[in-house]
Write a structure and sequence with these properties.
The complex is a heterodimer of chains A (80) and B (318). A 4-stranded mixed sheet of chain A has the order 2-1-3-4. Chain A has 80 residues and is an alpha+beta fold. In chain A, helix 1 crosses helix 3. Chain A is built from 3 helices and 4 strands. By secondary structure, chain B is an all-alpha fold. Chain B has one domain. Helices cover 74% and strands 0% of the residues of chain B. Chain B is globular and about 70 Å long. Chain B starts with a helix and ends with a helix. Classes of the chains: A alpha+beta (80), B mainly alpha (318).
Chain lengths: 80, 318
């Protein structure tokens, strides 16, 4: 899976990146976590409120900071 | 609604501490204790409720809805969505670009951008706490009108070339509902409320502290004489002073409450509050990354003028 954290550098965006990494470690297996901070790239996802999280190119959450458990749930949801 | 608190505070200050109920210090202390507890309770609960309700109206949904609507309907919708969607000035840019991307006209985008900060959760919470629901509703109503008219004016000026970034339009704007459990919403709203609370509580304390001092020590005649009661230039000064103030809005409102109590006209107070929240220098600097100074200048000019008119209008009719 490829997790993308979309955010232009607000404090919450950095937190979400950390949370995503932690979730990946807990989930097990190899999954990529990438930070997308170019505003035009973010716009291409149709997201207007950051931080947002996309899994395999699909936006699962925007405008909210997430907990590790929530990211894990999204990852499970994306796998099935 | 808060009689019990008034009595508890009076009991504490006058009976327990034994301070004379007629003394300046007694009056000020009683007011300080009563007012801070009341405001903190109201702030926490109102911000919480507003945030929770707003979690059902993400801005992406608003965009999909406004996109493709008739122009005038667009202005009205944009202003209304500005009130009910969550907004933070830090996300002004993605929002701005996102609207243009969906082929929403520049003027309609501005209607949203003016309406959203005006009806910020904190401002509504503070207005409700200090002035009651009638004034709060009046404030939101005027905010909508200013946002719609200012957006129409900016839209009529053909300023599209003043947007510094070229926006590639999306052919098809859709919004997919994100599933979110109610308990997550509750939790999220609470986190957000605490976040805001931590940012503003100190300002509230200081504001109420100064307010309490004025309440106890400064006679009303003094305020109406020097803080310009019905002087014609009072709203003008209020707007000019309001622009550089931003994060301190929460500290200024308690003061405004006391000042209106002591004779400052409500129109002046309203225009001051609107200038504080709708026109902020930090927001101008953020917008500078995508807009020319000319467009920002027009934006501030039009909105400032609208706020000023509101101030005068209310000083005359209220």
């Amino acid at each position: 899976m490829k997790l993308e954290v979309l955010g232009t550098g607000c404090a919450k965006c950095k937190t979400l990146e950390e949370v995503a990494k932690e979730a990946v470690a807990k989930f097990g297996g190899f999954h990529e976590v990438k930070k997308v901070d170019d505003i035009m790239d973010i716009m291409n996802y149709g997201v207007m409120s950051t931080p947002a999280l996309a899994i395999d190119g699909k936006v699962v959450s925007s405008g909210r900071s997430l907990s590790v458990d929530e990211v894990l749930e999204y990852m499970k949801g994306a796998r099935s | 609604m808060f009689d019990w608190l008034d009595q508890a505070s009076a009991w504490f200050v006058f009976d327990t501490l034994g301070i004379a109920s007629k003394s300046h210090f007694g009056v000020a202390l009683h007011f300080f204790i009563y007012d801070t507890i009341k405001i903190l309770l109201l702030l926490l609960s109102i911000i919480y409720i507003v945030t929770l309700v707003r979690s059902y109206f993400p801005v992406e949904k608003a965009r999909a809805y406004i996109s493709g609507k008739h122009k005038v309907t667009g202005h009205v919708l944009a202003a209304v969505f500005g009130v009910i969607t969550p907004f933070c000035s830090c996300s002004a840019i993605p929002l701005f670009l996102g609207f243009l991307q969906a082929r929403i006209p520049l003027g309609v985008t501005f209607s949203y951008l003016i309406s959203a900060p005006l009806s910020d959760a904190v401002v509504i919470a503070l207005l409700l706490s200090f002035f009651g629901w009638k004034i709060a509703l009046l404030y939101v109503g005027i905010g909508l009108i200013i946002a719609i008219i200012a957006g129409l004016i900016i839209g009529a000026m053909n300023l599209e070339s003043e947007v510094l970034i070229e926006v590639k339009p999306l052919d098809h704007v859709e919004y997919e509902e994100q599933e979110l459990l109610f308990k997550h919403r509750l939790h999220e709203a609470w986190e957000y409320t605490l976040d805001i609370f931590k940012k503003i509580y100190l300002y509230v304390f200081i504001g109420v502290g100064i307010g309490a001092f004025i309440h106890g020590y400064v006679p009303a005649e003094f305020i109406s004489k020097y803080a310009g009661g019905d002087a014609w230039y009072a709203p003008l000064i209020a707007v000019v002073m309001g622009i550089p103030m931003y994060s301190s809005a929460s500290g200024i409102l308690p003061l405004v409450e006391v000042l209106t109590d002591k004779g400052m006209l409500l129109g002046t107070a309203l225009s001051f509050m609107m200038a504080v929240v709708a026109l902020s220098l930090p927001e101008a600097l953020i917008l500078k990354r995508v807009l020319s100074w000319k467009l920002i200048g027009i934006f501030f000019g039009v909105v400032g003028f609208g706020i000023l008119l509101t101030g005068y209008l209310f000083n005359i009719i209220l």
